[in-house]
Amino acid sequence: MTMPPRILTRRHLRELIPYTPQHIQRLEKAGKFPRRIQLGPNRVGWVATEVDAWLAERIAQRDAQAKAA
Predict the structure, then answer these.
(1) What are phi and psi of 39, to 5 degrees?
(2) Within a domain: 2
(3) Computed from CA positions of residues 25, 27, 31, 32, in that sequence, does the dihedral angle turn out positive or negative?
(4) CA-CA distance, 6 to 11, in Å (whole number)?
(5) Domain with 42 in it
(6) What is the pLDDT of residues 2-34, one digit of tens each?
């Protein structure tokens, strides 16, 4: 049995990513951040594994730049 994906609410996302909601939306539209999913008429969320992968990519970029310097 496969576990359903863990969904991050706006509050949980804000704890992980210290960006304003407007900046998150701009990044999503530019294809530079995982897209939200519509959970209900007034509720959205983000798939936690996608956000984790985005963070891991940023950390890898930082580490690559440190090695190049």
Answers:
(1) -95, -25
(2) no
(3) negative
(4) 14
(5) 7-68
(6) 888 999 999 999 999 999 999 999 999 999 999
